[in-house]
Design brief:
Layout: H1 13-21, H2 28-38, H3 48-59, H4 76-81, H5 86-96, H6 100-112, H7 119-126, H8 129-136, E1 145-146, E2 152-153
Helix pairs in contact: 1-3, 2-5, 2-6, 3-5, 5-6, 5-7, 6-7
């Protein structure tokens, strides 16, 4: 991990981006959530993994265009709490191994929320950063095995690949 002055429940965005880059690109609960909000079973062209790697890497810069900021954000916790896409919140939690029932509960509550802009907050109420961080900080980067473009096998964590 990068040297930092973060609280015990935080890490550098670039370290978190490295962890995220090794997680499965598609997962069943998040896929179902996306299908329900989009009205189609077709996967988006860009996976949540790609989206989140870019999001976390971009936080370490001053951004560009409409995403320009005066000071880079190096806090993974702050970046998580700024997510405006409920599917991203769900995917991160599901990918790092948060209890499946909690991820399903967060998805159901986010779907039930009529105000689109409130859905990420509703999901984070069930899946706060502290829960995600506890799982993410124990993920060994060397445990991930590439599986011929179909996602990643996580045998040491007891997770299964998801194929559609």
């Amino acid at each position: 991990m990068a040297e930092n002055n973060y609280a015990a429940d935080d890490m550098d965005v670039l370290d978190f981006a490295k962890i995220v880059s090794l997680l499965p690109p598609y997962l069943p609960i998040t896929d179902d959530f996306i299908a329900q909000i989009s009205g189609t079973d077709e996967r988006p062209e860009r996976s949540e993994r790609e989206h989140m790697v870019g999001w976390y890497q971009g936080q370490a810069t001053t951004g560009s265009g409409q995403y320009t900021r005066n000071v880079p954000n190096r806090s993974a916790k702050r970046a998580y709490n700024r997510l405006l896409n409920p599917a991203s919140v769900l995917w991160i939690a599901e990918a790092v191994g948060v209890d499946e029932q909690l991820v399903r509960e967060a998805a159901a509550k986010a779907l039930a929320e009529p105000a689109w802009r409130s859905r990420p907050r509703v999901a984070r109420e069930v899946l706060p950063w502290e829960l995600v961080f506890e799982k993410a900080k124990h993920l060994p980067k060397s445990a991930f095995i590439l599986s011929k473009g179909k996602g990643y096998a996580l045998p040491r964590l007891g997770l299964r690949r998801h194929h559609r």
